[in-house]
UniProtKB/TrEMBL annotation, chain A:
It comes from Sphaerimonospora thailandensis. NDH-1 is composed of 14 different subunits. Subunits NuoA, H, J, K, L, M, N constitute the membrane sector of the complex. The gene is nuoN_2. It is found in: Cell membrane; Endomembrane system; Membrane. Residues 150-450 form the NADH:quinone oxidoreductase/Mrp antiporter transmembrane domain. InterPro entries: NADH-Q_OxRdtase_suN/2, ND/Mrp_TM. It is a multi-pass membrane protein. This is NADH-quinone oxidoreductase subunit N.
From TrEMBL, chain B:
Its EC number is 7.1.1.-. The chain crosses the membrane at residues 6-22, 27-47, 59-82. One of its GO terms (molecular function) is NADH dehydrogenase (quinone) (non-electrogenic) activity. This is NADH-quinone oxidoreductase subunit K. One of its GO terms (cellular component) is NADH dehydrogenase complex. Its main location: membrane. HAMAP family: NDH1_NuoK. NDH-1 is composed of 14 different subunits. Subunits NuoA, H, J, K, L, M, N constitute the membrane sector of the complex. It is a multi-pass membrane protein. GO terms for biological process: ATP synthesis coupled electron transport. It is found in: Cell membrane; Membrane. The gene is nuoK. NDH-1 shuttles electrons from NADH, via FMN and iron-sulfur (Fe-S) centers, to quinones in the respiratory chain. The immediate electron acceptor for the enzyme in this species is believed to be a menaquinone. Couples the redox reaction to proton translocation (for every two electrons transferred, four hydrogen ions are translocated across the cytoplasmic membrane), and thus conserves the redox energy in a proton gradient. It is an enzyme of class 7 (translocase).
């Protein structure tokens, strides 16, 4: 200690996409503090959409300039091919979700007012609105970008929290069925905080083992440090718990249906797509870069988790009577399919590249379809708000064939029918798994897909071949934003299903460099 | 002798973890989570001492900040649900199931 601390070098250019989003979020907080109430949402919306757009353009620009191969900010944040691909995907999906979020009537007027009280009626009467939603979404998106790019376990923890904390709040802000919404927020918060404590304790153990939190240095220390393997195993397991929780993999999936159901549907769309993508990015990075040398230990565990997740998600989805819960269980099953890709890595870099590019493509395909499906859910309403119960969806195909047709298409994409994006996603991941020698897992995956196809088709049959209920829900005329979201998601699902090559190539070139070390 | 501190940290973490699982009051559950985070801090500081690096002590500060942010969010959610239900029990909040 000679008293001087060398100033760190920070590559602002490389980090610019993330900084734009965080900057806009802070501007949003200032708007909240200083702008008059009636102007706020008019200011927030352009700021939010523009910042996401600028950030995306910056990523494209950087991509064209050449993907960096070195971690930025003193090795704390890795801006590499996979990270940039994930950033781009998250930004597009967040942009689309914001178009849903901006619609009237999803969010409560005054979250602090007790449901059913005079105070709440007063707030509704005055047209109060929580415009804080926009900066919160931006912070969550920023966290989703930081989390998969973190090349340091501490940054990963911070990213995890920055991503999750705004989402906990957003979950509790539904305008209708507020008790469910608040309950979802509490469950998500308590379980989320519990799991991040595990992540942090795991980080502490790994720090004790490797004397560093840098993923590459941890990877280099495997097998070099003697006599402290216990710390490493405990640490790796606990970090795995934290990450698998965010994915919603099988023993840690309990929060997902509750939270997806209770949260306002646009927020569910954002969570179901963005959080899953970010968490998979982080999982891959931590387990390949830092714990890659330990794969003989974690691979069997992931094997079991993947099987449990796929089968559990698919089987429980059958018993659901609520459309949002059904989509949540379907999301759990998809998490299991993606885990197959995580296991399907070999020692050869080519094998890792094909597994990684399969996962990246799957994430894009699944993200778009999910956002589209939840956008459709926002449009089918009855007197009490959105009609969630499946029986209410009976005969929807006869009342509004177009909407029901689009929804059926999304469900087929979830099921992985050819000519939809879901097919190529599953194909890419399963193929990588077969070459990687995980054939039994692929068989289980195929069985789970068949089970899953059953309940997707059941909804389609219900929509098209049942008689509509007399007092059935009405389909609201979508706002331009919602219509754009559904259209875009349907378009992406078709294009990725018919003409997937450009995105596959993009995913492949992103995966080419693997993760920087 | 840093082992004692590690044992203490593991004990605190276990007490927090068991507390989360068995306690009913959301505030107490939340305090148990905070206890777990503090156990992590103790482990970080101990390892910093053991490994002779300062990183662990700096990390502890980060964790404190994050924990403080978490308190803000958590109390907001729990207070809201308490005002609605007149109860902070995690067992009472059970509308979401099946």
């Amino acid at each position: 200690m000679n008293g001087t601390i060398p100033a760190p070098t920070i590559e602002y250019g490389m980090l610019a996409p993330m900084l734009v989003v965080f900057g806009a979020a802070i501007v949003g907080v200032l708007v909240e503090a200083f702008a008059p109430r009636y102007l706020r949402s008019a200011i927030h919306l352009p700021i939010t959409l523009l910042s996401l757009l600028i950030s995306f353009v910056l990523i494209v620009w950087q991509w064209v300039e050449g993907v960096p191969t070195k971690a930025a900010a003193m090795g704390a944040i890795a801006v590499d091919g996979p990270a940039m691909f994930i950033w781009g995907t998250i930004l597009v999906l967040a942009f689309v979700s914001v178009l849903l979020i901006k619609d009237e009537g999803h969010f409560v007027g005054a979250a602090a007012a007790v449901p059913g009280s005079a105070e709440e009626e007063q707030a509704l009467y005055e047209g109060a609105a929580h415009t804080e939603v926009y900066p919160l979404v931006l912070f969550a998106v920023g966290g989703m970008m930081l989390f998969p790019a973190a090349n340091d376990l501490l940054i990963a923890f911070v990213g995890l929290e920055v991503m999750s904390l705004p989402l906990y709040l957003l979950c509790g802000l539904a305008r209708r069925r507020r008790l469910l919404s608040q309950e979802a927020a509490m469950k998500y918060f308590l379980l989320g905080a519990f799991s991040s404590a595990f992540f942090l304790y795991g980080t502490a153990m790994i720090y004790g083992y490797a004397n560093s939190l840098d993923l590459a240095e941890i990877g280099a220390s495997l097998g070099v440090v003697g006599g402290q393997d216990m710390l490493l195993y405990i640490g790796g397991a606990m970090i795995g718990v934290g990450l698998l929780f965010k994915i919603g993999a099988a023993p840690f999936q309990a929060w997902k249906p509750d939270v997806y159901q209770g949260a306002p549907t646009p927020i569910t769309a954002l969570m179901a797509s963005g959080t899953l993508i970010a968490a998979f990015g982080a999982l891959l990075r931590v387990f390949w870069v830092a714990l890659g040398g330990l794969d003989w230990n974690w691979r069997p565990v992931f094997y079991g988790v993947a099987i449990l997740t796929m089968l559990g998600g698919a089987i429980f989805a059958i018993t659901q009577t609520d459309i949002k819960r059904m989509l949540a269980y379907s999301s759990i099953a998809h998490g299991g399919f993606l885990l197959i890709g995580v296991i399907a890595t070999g020692s050869a870099p080519a094998q890792n590249t094909s597994a990684l590019s399969g996962i990246l493509f799957y994430l894009v395909a699944y993200g778009f379809t999910t956002v589209g499906a939840f956008a459709v859910v926002t449009m089918v309403r009855d007197a009490g708000g959105e009609a969630w119960h499946l029986s209410r969806w009976a005969g929807l195909g006869k009342r509004s064939p177009l909407l029901a047709g689009v929804f059926a298409f999304f469900l087929l994409a979830f099921a992985g029918i050819p000519l939809t994006s879901g097919f190529f996603g599953k194909y890419a991941v399963f193929q990588a798994a077969v070459t990687g020698g995980a054939l039994p897992l692929v068989i289980v995956g195929a069985v789970a897909s068949a089970v899953a196809a059953f309940f997707y088709v059941r909804v389609i049959v219900l929509m098209f071949f049942s008689d509509p209920a007399a007092d059935g829900p009405s389909v609201v005329l979508p706002s331009r934003g919602t219509a754009a979201v559904v259209g875009l998601a349907a378009l992406a699902t078709v294009v990725l299903g018919v003409f997937p090559q450009p995105v596959l190539d993009l995913a492949h070139s992103a995966a080419q460099s693997l993760f920087v070390r | 002798m840093t082992t004692h501190y590690l044992v203490l940290s593991a004990l605190l973490f276990a007490i927090g973890g068991v507390g989360v699982l068995v306690r009913r009051n959301a505030i107490v559950v939340f305090m148990c989570v905070e206890l777990m985070l503090n156990a992590c801090n103790l482990a970080f500081v101990t390892f910093a001492r053991q490994n002779g690096s300062l990183d662990g002590q700096v990390i502890a500060f980060f964790v404190m900040i994050v924990a403080a942010a978490e308190v803000v969010i958590g109390l907001a959610i729990i207070v809201t649900i308490f005002r609605t239900r007149r109860s902070a029990s995690v067992d009472d909040a059970s509308l979401l199931k099946h």
